[in-house]
Recover the amino acids of this structure.
């Protein structure tokens, strides 16, 4: 294992297209291309100092919007009916999100930077708070990195939405794959009506901005279970199988009735030869219904513009 790759400085101007679409079974999703919406929506990754212009198109038959947590935006990009920043059926709108580095204000107080694990969602479908849109899948992850932050080999998003994970039926995952030694990042978001606890078997993380300790004197608590309520988001990185080896490691809500009702999936950590000790995909009842694990997410927001250089990962 060589030195970890790290995030570069920000300051780029990026542009993406994003579509809101209806999916099967009454679900809805965001996608980077028409006909390719997903739940959760695409990962949007930025570095502190970046600006992102999102050309948003509503392909549905009801008004929809895009509202982000944790980033800077003007009221015209709030994504609410109250601010008249939603999008009518067939309409388009450009939302602009900005990020900033930490620094000292003119009055001497400290202003935190934008770095963190955040998320976006609809704010108008069903009610003026977007209850119907969120319930049906209109949400996705945002990561803002600080210069020098360690970059993962792969990133996965887990959303506890009411009593589902990523809006999937009970006991159908999703499962996530890695090989022993991979640096794996998880983004965890909660939506809906309930509080949950997120627990990952066999792996631990620091309860801080990055999920990693900065050194031996870092006072952050090391945990393997975290309480999460509606609109909470956090993230962390683990080394797959570190100190514990390969295996089908369970993750789940640790509210016992919630896990009993199917809020559970697997972190499938393989040996270098591709095998997973003791794991039979035909016998377990926690993972993807298709038996195929979820793929790692490729972040949006990496396109070139005339105002920016190519984004590095």
């Amino acid at each position: 294992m060589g030195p970890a790759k790290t995030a570069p400085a920000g300051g780029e101007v990026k542009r993406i297209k994003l579509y809101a679409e209806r999916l099967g079974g009454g679900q809805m999703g965001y996608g980077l291309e028409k006909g390719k919406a997903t739940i959760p929506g695409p990962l949007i990754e930025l570095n502190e100092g970046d600006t992102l212009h999102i050309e948003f198109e509503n392909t549905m038959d009801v008004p929809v919007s895009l509202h982000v947590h944790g980033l800077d935006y003007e009221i015209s990009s709030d994504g609410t009916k109250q601010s008249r920043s939603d999008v009518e059926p067939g309409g388009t709108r450009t939302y602009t999100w900005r990020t900033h580095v930490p620094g000292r204000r003119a009055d001497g107080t400290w202003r935190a930077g934008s770095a963190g694990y955040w998320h976006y969602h609809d704010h108008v479908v069903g009610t003026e708070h977007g209850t119907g849109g969120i319930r049906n899948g209109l949400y996705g992850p945002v990561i803002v990195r600080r210069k020098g932050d360690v970059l993962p080999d792969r990133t996965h998003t887990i959303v506890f939405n009411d009593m589902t994970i990523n809006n999937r039926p009970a006991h159908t995952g999703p499962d996530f794959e890695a090989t022993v030694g991979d640096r794996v990042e998880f983004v965890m978001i909660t939506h809906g009506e309930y509080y949950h606890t997120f627990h990952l078997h066999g792996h631990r993380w620091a309860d801080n901005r990055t999920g990693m300790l900065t050194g031996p004197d870092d006072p952050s608590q090391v945990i393997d279970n975290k309480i999460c309520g509606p609109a909470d988001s956090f993230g962390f990185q683990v080394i797959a199988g570190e100190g514990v080896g390969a295996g089908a490691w369970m993750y789940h809500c640790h509210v016992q009735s919630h896990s009993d009702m199917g809020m559970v999936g697997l972190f499938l950590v393989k040996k270098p030869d591709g095998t997973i000790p003791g794991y039979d995909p035909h016998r377990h009842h926690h993972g993807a219904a298709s038996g195929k694990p979820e793929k790692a997410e490729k972040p949006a927001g990496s396109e070139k513009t005339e105002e920016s250089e190519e984004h590095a990962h």
